[in-house]
Predict the structure.
Amino acid sequence: MTWQTIAKRDIDLTFGARSGKLLLGLTVLSILLAGYIYPVIGTKPITTARFGGFVTGWLTTLLPFVGVLLGYGAVVNERESGALRLSLSLPNSRLDVLLGKFCSRAGLLTAAVLVSLSGAGALVVYPFGELVISRFLAFTLLTVLFGTVWCGLGLATSLIVATRRRALVLSFGLVFVFVVVWDAIKTALRVGLNAAGIVDGALPGPAQFLLGLEPGHVFQRVVSGLVTGGGMADGPWYLNEWVAFALLMLWSVGPLGLAYVAFARSDVS
């Protein structure tokens, strides 16, 4: 067996499960709904480029939940049942397991994103919208990358813990911190520093950079700079969209790489 075999088998298991269908269906329906609503409530001109800015806020909430739910049980379920020991004795390497599971789960989410954004783009264009093909393709690729980031984070938790419950708690802990409370932390820090007279108005560049490392904020900065045409506000170079793109790429591989190191050294018995 190879990682490709593991991926094909895992695709069948994941898509065959009711939970997998529900998560992927939720993704498709949510993005199609955004494509239907945008021409109705959006300001003119109605274009697929501006649709990216409209739907980004939806995606930074939707894809983290879907991604971690798809990824968190990928390996730990087999570890709990003992199937992982059998899989590694066939023989498969632990790297084969990682690649197969990641490609299957991220591949399914990618397919859902591609199908739904294609349909949403058609809803935006018909009958009075405008297709801006280059920016819409860029937005689609960035959305796929953002989805794989959260699939990877879910899978990373599955690699480093021994039980499904721990993986679920850790995964939703990441979602809670990054998606639910991160903005509140930023606001509280800014208000506190202004009240103390340490800053006047916006946070200094280094603080903006550190607080902007959260994947959703990175994704929004890249979309604003490269898709919607908003560009970056005047400020340090490390706050521009290309640095944000590099950070998004780092999020897609860094946590998985660290988790694999721990997984490679762990006892799966």
